Amino acid sequence: MDVSVDVDPGLLVCTLDDLPEALVAAAHQLLAELVRGGAALGWVEPPSQEEVRRLLTDVAAAVRAGDASLRVAFLGDRLVGLGYWTRYARPTHRPHADLQKIAVDPSAQGRGIGRALVSALVEDARAARIEVLTLDARGDNANALHLYRTLGFTEYGRLPDFVAVGDRRYDKVLCMRDLRSAPKPA
After folding, report:
1. Most buried of 20, 51, 127, 145, CB within 10 angstroms?
2. In order of start, what are the domains of the chain with their CATH numbers?
3. Which residue from 51, 48, 141 is spatially nearest to 102, judged by alpha carbons?
4. How confident is the model over 136-149, as pLDDT tens digits?
């Protein structure tokens, strides 16, 4: 494990050299709980453990290829957050990456875990020579949008009523951070 950020006493944000089964189970539990609570993570129903395993396996393979970064956060031995970015596959977009699935355990929110994850992922992107890091967020996710703004992301577009969750519709907010310039303070 490569330790990168220690924000809250006991909080450890790190990369992973491999994908232990215990991490898959803990990530599944975290993501399923968040989706059940209405979190905007791209699922309408909680993902299965196998779906989470495939997702993490794909991201881990991209990490090994230099095309992604996966960060996890622990309080003690409990997984309380995860997030990742992946490089765009299209050859004309290869200098850029998309930040995805920033997830923090509801019982641990407000402790700087989301900020630590995103900050570590931005630094990983900078180290990987990513030029522009993009993300999208559901328009009603005010806390996430505020966090991204404070970390130097700017909104570059909005698709009204683009995200469908049953009969409800939400804007899709498109944000970016240009990493070609000097680092912005966190």
Report:
1. 145
2. 2-130 (3.40.630.30)
3. 141
4. 999 999 999 999 99
